[in-house]
Design goal:
Mean pLDDT: 96
CATH superfamily: Chorismate synthase AroC
Oligomer: single chain
CATH class: Alpha Beta
Strand order of the largest sheet: 8-7-9-15-10
Bound molecules: flavin mononucleotide, the ligand C=C(O[C@@H]1CC(C(=O)O)=C[C@@H](OP(=O)(O)O)[C@H]1O)C(=O)O
Helix content: 25-40%
CATH architecture: 4-Layer Sandwich
Order of helices and strands: EEHHEEEEHHHEEHHEHEEEEEEEEHH
């Protein structure tokens, strides 16, 4: 299952096409809209989120609430488009009073994109480099998430830190034990109420100082069978696929699995997860690996942590060079988020969903749900027999 998106941040709409969707999968537009609203939320977002009310319109590939096995296309309207019709028109000439973006923001794609594409207006770049595009990803991932849910896999995320404020956790393995309601009702997607409040205060301080903040979050997937992915080829390793998927999100600068970088400082006996025989199968005494061994799922929850850099647009801007005059100047001050870590966490859920959905299809087939379910049950039966 793969997606492709199109659409500019202030164009009329975003489009996502999902390919290789099995037939017979129940799809709920309400569930997709719920995920879209989760992506819009989070303390620290800017004025744009008061304009948008993201809703996915399914325009192909679904009939009577079930997928047909054909590509699924989804459209998300940009309500802000009405304010940009002249400046973002697909045809005609630029308006006489068009203000070009010529003071690129350090940390955004403005300068490098302009160099790459030979434009004299950084808006040509920022319209697509904007993380507005991630709304289309979340809409598309609604299909992957429904698919995974049918196979018993749930994905959620929570924020661990914003700037230098972090919630306290004994270990990343705690990730699989939080109450989802505590996360969804926190304005920071953080299950710790005191940390939520401290993160909000940090964002308030940053806003007052014309600053921005990044942070870290974890994505957790439960209900996975062991053995998805493969050790046999580089491109089959889920570690690499998940890393690439998470690094495809704007502003993500680090990814760790389980104990992550901390594992590099510890002796092997404190890192690797002892194997036990429990109930009808194998289990582990711990989950420091974060649910991946040898590039494959271990059957324990997948726990992956990502680090987001601070938002590049600053109300107290850094210096830049004016592309027209070549004189030093302050970088442009666009309307902007101060912190978007909770939103990035929801986007990361979407990316993880696509990787895992593809891994299930690779292992159990991709044509129709009935076959996939049967193949999965057969596999689970074989695993049970293995431990007897
Ligand atoms: C959900 C989300 C919201 C974002 N909001 C903003 C924003 O309002 N202003 C901004 O300058 N950057 C924002 N960013 C970050 C930029 O999109 C990102 O830094 C930029 O595309 C450059 O990509 P890079 O950081 O991967 O180099 C946001 C990122 C995400 C994931
Ligand atoms: C629109 C979204 O995020 C945007 C991401 C973004 C950026 O530069 O990445 C800049 C801001 O857009 P605007 O310039 O219109 O205020 C954010 O609001 C969204 O997440 O839906």
């Amino acid at each position: 299952m793969r997606y492709v998106t199109a659409g500019e941040s202030h164009g009329p709409e975003l489009v996502a096409i999902v390919e290789d969707v099995p037939a017979g999968l129940k799809v709920s537009a309400e569930q997709i809209d719920y995920d879209l609203s989760r992506r819009q939320s989070g303390y620290g977002r800017g004025g744009r989120m008061t304009i948008e009310r993201d809703h996915a319109r399914i325009v192909s590939g679904v009939r009577f609430g079930r997928t047909l096995g054909s590509p699924v296309a989804l459209v998300v309207e940009n309500r802000d488009w009405v304010n940009w019709t002249e400046r973002m028109a697909a045809d005609g000439q630029p308006p006489a009073d068009l203000k070009r973006e010529v003071t690129p923001r350090p940390g955004h794609a403005d300068l490098v994109g302009a160099l790459r594409t030979n434009t004299d207006d950084c808006r040509d770049i920022l319209e697509r480099a904007s993380a507005r595009e991630t709304a289309a990803r979340v809409a598309a991932a609604g299909i992957a998430r429904e698919f995974l849910a049918e196979l018993g896999v749930e994905i959620y995320s929570y924020v661990v830190s914003v700037g230098d404020v972090a919630m306290k956790e004994a270990s990343p393995a705690d990730a699989a034990s939080y109450n989802p309601m505590a996360i969804e009702t926190s304005e920071m997607r953080c299950p710790d109420a005191a940390a939520t409040e401290a993160m909000k205060q940090a964002i308030n301080r940053a806003r007052r100082a014309g600053e921005s903040l990044g942070g870290t979050f974890r994505v957790v997937a439960t209900g996975l069978v062991p053995g998805l992915g493969t050790y046999a080829q580089a491109k089959g390793r889920l570690t690499g696929q998940l890393g690439a998927a998470l690094f495809s999100i704007p502003a993500i600068k680090g990814v760790e699995f389980g104990l992550g970088f901390e594992a590099a400082q510890l002796p092997g006996s404190q890192v690797h997860d002892p194997i036990l025989l429990a109930g009808a199968g194998f289990d582990r005494a711990s989950n420091n690996a974060g649910g991946l061994e040898g590039g494959m799922t271990s059957g324990l929850p997948l726990v992956v942590t990502a680090a987001m850099k601070p938002i590049p647009t600053l109300m107290t801007p850094l210096s830049t060079v004016n592309l027209e005059t070549l004189a030093p100047e302050e970088a442009s001050k666009e309307r902007s988020d101060v912190c978007a870590v909770p939103a990035a966490a929801v986007v990361a859920e979407a990316e993880v969903a696509f990787v895992l959905a593809s891994a299930y299809q690779e292992a159990f087939g991709g044509t129709c749900m009935a076959d996939i379910r049967r193949n999965l049950e057969q596999y689970k039966g074989r695993l049970r027999a293995f431990a007897r």
